[in-house]
Design brief:
Layout: H1 8-32, H2 37-53, E1 62-63, H3 69-79, H4 81-100, H5 112-135, H6 143-148, H7 150-158, H8 161-180, H9 192-206, H10 219-222, H11 228-232, H12 237-262, H13 272-288, E2 295-296, H14 298-306, H15 313-328, H16 338-352, H17 355-364, H18 366-381, H19 384-403, E3 406-411, E4 418-426, H20 431-439, E5 447-457, H21 459-472, E6 481-483
Parallel strand pairs: 4-5, 5-6
Antiparallel strand pairs: 1-2, 3-4
Length: 497
């Protein structure tokens, strides 16, 4: 037996650790997303058993992620829980298509600043929203509203003993998670999030505290296979924007997580297209079950590697433990205080904000830091999908601007022709600078324009240079002499007339 599975012991122990980390996160993400807690466990089970058995990234663990909480909550609010399955199903099918078409590896080309900005924006919205949940208060719908309403929410909580008690449970949960890392290593074998939830549950029961707890419907009771009405929502253009957002953001988060996990171990490297297919298969099944969307989750994945996992058996076993827990002990979920789950997510949201990366980027690449901040602010101010699009657009513009670097040198010896040298990449983005310099040349002097140093000359610049040369070559002035690279086709050469 051991000869067939040489790492069975390491994988078994790692699966227990990942299971203990996954339980509070699965439940917390589901509650924060506005769906029954069991749906989070179903996604965790599918992520462990189904996605876990497939090829891609051997040690990466999938399940419901805090990073999609905001988007899922918005989708549930707009389309309803019954339609969530259709959204996740078609997002999964889109991921499968991208994987089979070999698009998975291209996600590595997405600007890291945009991804970090996305996580930062998500983290801010999660923190703001879960503070309301921790106090037992209703949160405003928009990200700006959540943040702007915090002073008023704290004022309301101070005048309400029930809200204060609930807030204290949430704050205590965060304190336990933070301080747990300072405990002896033997104690830290129990994950801090799990310890915090257990302590909060014990305190709530022991002192009969008036705080809300998780609503339990049973594992089979929450499975909602999409019906005809749900599929009818596909006629709405708005739902397709949400489907694309689910697919792209879940894929980006999963594949960036895979790259991060690869840096944590010396085992097989991630096969990105196969990992995309695995994620797509998992989300397709989650959609058919009406569950939450899944992504690879860096918290669970890093816990898996740190616990000594060697093969994908650890993540499959963690899915088995989730299934057994959800089937045999659903009553345990009903004991968990909601403010404790809110505290876990506030801590998770805080960890999504890349404080160190922002500082390092600002010192070395201010443009990238600006993209990160704008992406985060856009997500808070507008929504997840449009915020990411704004960040991507800024990244493309910045890259185009930097790629169009052009050097213009004017040599005027006082007599004879004025010599102008252009080198680099002349695109429409640099056209104002080029024309300002050329139009400032004396009109009554001959000009020699040397373009042989250009690597690229776009159509807009070529046309503008021809028009300038024609204007400069007026009566009484020698025609502009243009020198281009010998590799430039004759049909594309700049003419002076």
């Amino acid at each position: 037996m051991l000869s067939k599975f040489p790492y069975l012991r390491q994988d078994f122990l790692a699966s227990i650790v990942v299971f203990l980390v996954a339980v509070p996160l699965c439940v917390g993400v589901a509650v924060a997303s506005g769906v029954p807690a069991e749906l989070g466990l179903i996604t965790g089970i599918v992520g462990g058993i189904v996605t876990g058995m497939m090829r891609g990234s051997s040690l990466q663990v999938s399940g419901p992620a805090a990073g999609l909480t905001v988007l899922v909550f918005e989708a549930v609010s707009e389309f309803g829980v019954a339609t969530l399955g259709v959204i996740v199903l078609f997002a999964g099918l889109l991921q499968l298509a991208m994987g089979f078409l070999g698009i998975g590896r291209w996600f590595r080309a997405i600007s890291v600043s945009v991804v970090e900005g996305m996580l930062c924006g998500i983290g801010l919205v999660i923190i703001a929203g879960q503070i309301y949940a921790a106090a037992g208060l209703k949160a405003p719908e928009s990200g700006i509203g959540k943040i702007a309403g915090l002073p008023g929410a704290f004022a309301d909580a101070l005048g309400n003993s029930t809200a204060l008690t609930s807030l204290a449970i949430g704050a205590g949960t965060i304190a336990v998670i933070v301080l747990w890392k300072k405990m002896p290593k033997a104690v830290q074998t129990v994950p801090g999030a799990l310890a915090a939830v257990v302590l909060a549950t014990v305190a709530t029961l022991a002192f009969s505290l008036p705080v809300a707890t998780v609503q339990v419907e049973g594992l089979l009771g929450v499975i909602q296979v999409p019906g005809a009405d749900a599929f009818g929502e596909l006629a709405s253009p708005a739902i397709w924007g949400t489907i694309i957002a689910f697919a792209l953001i879940a894929s980006a988060e999963s594949l960036f997580s895979a790259a991060a996990v690869d840096r944590l171990h010396d085992g097989p490297r991630t096969e990105y297209n196969k990992e995309m297919i695995a994620q797509g298969a998992g989300n397709t099944l989650c959609g058919l079950l009406g569950a939450l969307p899944m992504t690879a989750v860096i918290v669970r994945s890093s816990a898996n590697v740190s616990a000594g996992a060697k093969t994908k058996a650890s993540r499959v076993l963690h899915g088995v433990w989730l299934l057994l827990f959800a089937a045999a002990m659903p009553w345990a979920l009903a004991l968990i205080p909601i403010p404790a789950l809110a505290g876990i997510l506030v801590h998770a949201g805080w960890k999504l904000i890349p404080f160190r990366q922002i500082t390092a980027l600002w010192r070395a690449h201010k443009g990238e830091a600006l993209i990160l901040v704008v992406t985060a602010v856009s997500i808070v101010a507008v929504n997840m999908f449009e915020g990411v699009l704004i960040g991507l657009a800024l990244s493309v513009v910045k890259t185009a601007w930097e790629a169009s670097h052009v050097k213009l040198e004017v040599i005027d010896k006082g007599a004879g022709p004025i010599q102008v040298y252009l080198a680099g990449n002349a695109t429409f983005l640099r056209l104002p600078k080029i024309l300002d310099s050329l139009e400032a040349l004396p009109q009554d002097r001959p000009v020699e324009l040397d373009l042989s140093g250009l690597h690229h000359l776009d159509h807009a610049c070529r046309t503008a240079l021809e028009n300038w040369a024609a204007r400069h070559s007026a009566t009484g002035t020698e025609p502009v002499k243009v020198t281009e690279s010998e590799e430039t086709p004759a049909a594309e050469k700049v003419t002076a007339a």
